[in-house]
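[step 3/7] inverse_fold.run input=structure_tokens len=271
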């Protein structure tokens, strides 16, 4: 059996760039008709057009995933255009920094609204369409921060932890409907989001070098490597996998005490 999505319809949120774009390209390459939902309609349309130019089936819908009316209308548009939904990749997200004292209520609501409520909303409207097809697969894009925390990132960490709970809740609720729900948890990935975050430092390259060293494999991920894992979980190859979280982190969460601790030569001598 090869992984293929011939005859399947996939929805990818935040598909204009980064991990979402790589996922759109991967699923289209594997035969899916792909609907890309993104708040950046211009970038999304460019991505969709370039997929179509290489022989794929792809359409972009303008959609802010934190707005229920926009999500309802975009999902209805996908069903009208492609006839149904088999796969949902809930990927759209933003990064934000701050502890609970320095995070404004507005920023908290924005991060939770896009990163967590956005997944609730797209699932809420896509699941009934999947039920009509008698099954499907949802892949939620979490983070290593779904299982661990970095300092000064309270809203983001909370949203990413929440996505793991939502993954498990939906996996239980819809197993009887043949809908599998899993969460991919990436380490650091080379995307516009990472370059934005690195750009907050006067020396962005230093930040990128530190990120690479945080992963035992010695580098950050390409977006296509996360897309591969998403495609796998969305495919029939993962037919007995539901409610799970797949770390795609180059070993980032393995070393006790972090890589700095390992680099320090702290082996048995300091234990
Ligand atoms: N890049 C990383 O290192 C990394 C690591 C772990 C997890 N993630 C997660 O992966 C996902 C994708 O991240 P990325 O690095 O590709 O980000 P990115 O910023 O490069 O791309 C995000 C995409 O989401 C879209 N988007 C943003 N807000 C939206 C909204 N309200 N509605 C619809 N679309 C919206 C953007 O327009 C963009 O196309 C996010 O959920 C992020 O938290 C990223």
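[step 3/7] decode complete -> sequence:
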């Amino acid at each position: 059996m090869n992984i293929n999505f011939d005859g399947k319809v996939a929805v990818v949120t935040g598909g204009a760039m980064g991990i979402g774009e790589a996922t759109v390209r991967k699923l289209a390459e594997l035969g899916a008709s792909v609907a890309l939902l993104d708040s950046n309609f211009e970038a999304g349309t460019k991505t969709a057009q370039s997929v179509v130019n290489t022989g794929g089936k792809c359409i972009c819908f303008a959609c802010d995933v934190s707005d229920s009316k926009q999500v309802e209308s975009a999902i209805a548009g996908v069903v009208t255009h492609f006839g149904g939904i088999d796969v949902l990749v809930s990927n759209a997200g933003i990064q934000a920094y701050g502890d609970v004292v320095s995070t404004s209520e507005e920023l908290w609501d924005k991060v939770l609204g896009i990163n967590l409520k956005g997944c609730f909303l797209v699932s809420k409207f896509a699941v009934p369409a999947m039920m009509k097809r008698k099954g499907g697969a949802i892949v939620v894009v979490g983070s290593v921060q779904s299982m661990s925390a970095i300092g000064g990132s309270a809203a983001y960490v909370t949203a990413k932890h929440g996505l793991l709970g939502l993954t498990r809740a939906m996996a239980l609720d819809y197993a009887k409907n043949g809908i599998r729900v899993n969460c991919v948890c990436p380490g650091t990935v080379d995307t516009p989001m990472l370059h934005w975050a690195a750009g907050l430092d006067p020396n962005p390259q230093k930040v990128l070098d530190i990120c690479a060293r945080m992963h035992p494999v010695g580098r950050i991920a390409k977006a296509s490597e996360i897309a591969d894992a998403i495609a796998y979980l969305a495919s029939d190859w993962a037919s007995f996998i539901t409610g799970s979280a797949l770390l795609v982190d180059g070993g980032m969460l393995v070393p006790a005490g972090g890589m700095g601790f390992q680099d320090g030569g702290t082996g048995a001598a300091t234990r």
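[step 4/7] annotate
Confidence is low (pLDDT under 50) at residues 266-271.
The CA atoms of residues 95 and 196 lie 9 Å apart.
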